[in-house]
Design goal:
By secondary structure, the protein is α+β, with helices and mostly antiparallel strands. The protein has nine helices and 25 strands. The structure holds fe (ii) ion.
Length: 546
């Protein structure tokens, strides 16, 4: 265990914060957060002290990590890139100076009908990432975009704006993805997703894993390259996290998926550390020290994702939960179930639930986010109310014996919190509730029951759990516990243990979910198959095979 005064690899800003905290041993967690907020804040755009670097002096392609877009609004999209001529080096192969990057957005792939263009600054303080919020766009349109730095031009990305808020919007096809452990295999599912006809991709967490990556990339088992030793350790510092994003984002299949579709991202635990809860880490590290790591992880997350300015973190705090709309067809309440949650009950893991899981003082969302969610539902004019989030929402018993073990890290470990959310949905008159989930590295389809222990109780919505892109390696269609899970959970309509992603087509009469899988990821080139298709009708929730 390290102490707060022994953090040699942290950035100067974080080291300064650590010293500050170290001097004040009885500082509260809130105080530590405030100290960090001050210490890692970066000068506002235009006031950065770094000198300007002439982009024409960049001698190698700086667009090695691709392009991305995100959080489509009716009049705006967020465009992202990062300059990194040498992505596996701590300095990315660039001086600590700001660099001007030009961007353009067009109606056509040939960039003959330019809609908007401009220049942005890649700041060294943000690791030369670029976030451009392009405004005053037309609603419900496809756009193409690209960046230029000096003589280098990026690949072309494709994105779209959401329909106008008042538009009826007849349909929307989304994809849901999660859990992309680099060491567990190839991103073949992303290669297929890049070709798939979807409007937007929701990433439900575990975009990054903190664990060490060896020289052959784990089960990728490279024979044509040797990954640098700096990846062969768990990420704890800002530099570690930034480099790890570079590794993941250098994958051509992931880059293709980002270039093809706008992403709406939320995180789970591994972007920071396995199964952390608020300021409590997995292992016995003091909260104030863990908050330094959290600040580093959150900052690298924002830098490397197509996220807007309101999501930019302040120290260890980041406003990631947010609301998006697709006309009057769908409202998306994107949750963050990590940053504000109570500690896992009964020591985490799989446990028989006791009174703690029903303790109303415990929370999965924090009180503020919970109120925001329930208020948002009350004000919703959308046909579908979709909740992209992290951990399994429906009850999931692991055993046929009673009482059965359930996951303390999922909503089963926070039953009082789940009850408040479901009661809030009922009170708000939410009719077409759909929860989108990641985390568990398998695909599930659930009916969300008013009382999960009473199969005859009302079905309040559906939950679609997207399997992993790679985590868990090849997997199997029917894992060993398949029969047990299906019998122990009558509201579980589908269970598949392959890698892949889900598409959900939301329409005005029904929603259709396609669970798409690849038979292997530890070697490249797997074909895509549809393991199952389910529908749920507007006004009559519950999954039925199509
Ligand atoms: Fe995961």
């Amino acid at each position: 265990m390290t102490t707060t005064t022994d953090l040699p690899q942290h950035s100067p800003e974080l080291r300064a914060a650590a010293r500050h905290i170290g001097r004040r041993r009885f500082l509260t967690v809130t105080g530590a957060a405030a100290a960090l907020a001050f210490a890692v804040n970066v000068p506002a755009a235009g006031t950065a002290s770094a000198a300007q670097f002439d982009a024409r002096k960049i001698t190698d392609n700086p667009f090695t990590l691709g392009v991305a877009s995100g959080d489509p609004l009716p009049d705006s999209v967020l465009l992202w890139t990062r300059l990194a001529p040498a992505p596996y080096q701590p300095d990315s192969g660039l001086p600590a100076q700001r660099i001007t990057v030009h961007w353009e957005l067009a109606h056509d792939e040939g960039f003959t009908r330019i809609a908007r263009r401009g220049a942005a600054i890649a700041y060294p303080e943000f690791n030369h990432t670029v976030h451009v919020e392009v405004a005053a766009l037309e609603a419900g349109r496809v756009y193409y975009y690209r960046f230029r730095a000096g003589t280098w031009i990026s690949e072309t990305g494709r994105t779209r704006t959401a329909p106008a808020r008042t538009a009826a919007a007849s349909s929307l096809t989304l994809a849901a993805v999660s859990c992309q452990a680099y060491t567990d295999g190839h991103y073949t599912a992303y290669r297929h997703l890049a070709q798939d006809d979807v409007d937007v991709v929701f990433h439900l967490g575990d975009y990054l894993y903190e664990y060490a990556v060896n020289s052959v990339g784990g089960y990728r088992n490279y024979t044509d390259r040797t990954l640098p030793a700096l990846f062969n350790r768990e990420t704890t510092t800002l530099e570690d996290y930034r480099l790890r994003y570079a590794l993941f984002k250098s994958d051509p299949d992931l880059r293709a998926a980002h270039a093809a579709h706008p992403f709406v991202v939320t995180w789970d635990d591994h972007e920071t550390e396995n199964n952390y809860a608020d300021d409590l880490p997995e292992n016995s590290v003091p909260p104030e020290e863990f908050l330094l790591r959290r600040a580093a992880a959150y900052r690298a997350y924002w830098e490397n994702q197509p996220l807007r300015l309101p999501q930019r973190p302040t120290g260890p705090d980041m406003q990631l939960y947010r609301r998006l709309h697709w006309g009057r067809l769908a409202q998306f309440d994107v949750l963050d179930t990590r940053q504000y949650r109570s500690n896992q009950a009964y020591g985490d893991g799989s446990q028989i639930p006791g009174p703690e899981v029903d303790d109303p003082a415990r929370t999965m969302t924090g009180a503020t986010q919970e109120r925001w969610l329930l208020d948002g539902w009350r004000d919703s004019a959308a046909l579908w109310n979709v909740v992209p989030q992290q951990v399994t929402f429906a009850q999931r018993k692991f055993d046929l014996t009673e009482p059965s073990r359930v996951s303390m890290d999922a909503w089963d470990g926070y039953r009082a919190s789940r009850r408040r959310v479901l009661d809030g949905a009922k009170a708000a008159g939410v009719e077409n509730l759909m929860v989108l989930t990641g985390d568990v590295h398998v695909g599930y389809g659930f009916d969300i029951k008013d009382d999960f222990d009473a199969p005859d109780s009302a079905t309040l919505g559906t939950e679609i759990v997207a399997t992993s892109i790679t985590s868990g390696r090849d997997g199997s269609d029917k894992p060993a516990n398949w029969d047990t899970y299906m019998r122990a959970n009558p509201h579980m309509r589908f269970y598949n243990g392959r890698r892949g992603y889900v598409t959900v087509a939301l329409g005005r009469q029904l929603a259709r979910a396609d669970f798409k899988t690849v038979p292997y990821v530890t070697t490249t080139g797997a074909p895509l198959a549809t393991a199952a298709t389910f529908v749920t009708q507007v006004g009559a929730q519950g999954l039925t095979p199509a």
